[in-house]
Amino acid sequence: MYSYNKNEFYVRANSRPNRANRLKSSNALPVLQSTRILDQVRERIRYLHYAKSTEEAYVYWIRFYIRWAGTRHPREMGKDEVKGFLTFLAAKRSVSSSTHRVALSALLFLYQKVLGVELPWLDGLSRPAQRRHLPAVLTIEEVTHILSRLTGHYAILGRLLYGTGMRINEGLRLRVKDVDFDHRAIVIREGKGFKERVVMLPDAMVAPLKAQLAHARSVWAADMSADRPGVAMPDALARKFPMAGKSWAWFWVFPQAEVSRDPRSGIIRRHHLYDQTFQREFKRAVLASGVVKPATPHTLRHCFATHLLQAGYDIRSVQELLGHSDVSTTMIYTHVLKVAGRGVISPLDRL
Fold first, then answer.
1. pLDDT higher for 105 or 235?
2. Active-site annotation holds for 283
3. Fewer CB within 10 Å, N- or C-terminus of the chain?
4. Is residue 133 part of a domain?
5. How far, rounded to the nearest angstrom, does the alpha carbon of residue 311 sit from its chain's CA centroid?
6. What does pTM read for this prediction?
């Protein structure tokens, strides 16, 4: 049985640490208000402004870990249980290396950020080797066949993803104020890692986007007439600007047809189009097109980058458009081009 001592956890609120301890803990996380372990995980994740998808993944694996251990509290478990759980995932569940790493990250977050345990063995746990897969890339003809089978706002969104290289969530979260027709630009405010960047607005998307905005404005006007709550606002902007959520500028470019309950606040409001909805429509379009390559909405981003490089654009420009922090991430698309053997003649063709 793993034992712990009280010094490994947060100091009680009514304690009075000396000056040295106060300086040492000045950057410590605040004391959790929740009592249940999974609620504490959610509270800490939201305090650190992690993405909602990260919250869902971490809560899932921590719940799985607790149930695997017979509903024991994580404080009663330690190195042996963590290693046993990770071995179980690899040996019995045959999870991929990426899934294995997510599960390990969730447990590290639990012990370090929630329970406040800083033990050497946590950082010493070996992580599964990360495999780098070459992305599936479609030809221009294959992209055309797929996009032609999307209809309505799904067609507009699909063309926008391919034409700008945006991730699916970046396109879905697009706000009216961030589309600049005059400068032919789109500002991405809520990108991966909370990074912002500017991408081009293709000329071919001007008319379709204006039509989509006209539809979105009718939805927004109906919500205002029904006195519905405004759309969700990032961070604390809802408190700083209480009426901004109801303004046309902050409305979604791709609003959901029906209102729904906000999973965090519980408010019934208009959400943007769901990613699962578009993914289903895209899958149907791929099947109808006859394309046999594994293609998802994210494949359009890969195609955007690869087709730009094929057209002769420099890799630094592509890196900026994709929002990559390191050019080595963008370099994977040059490897895709090399796979096709560009400029290299097979010896078989010389026979």
1. 105
2. no
3. C
4. no
5. 29
6. 0.76
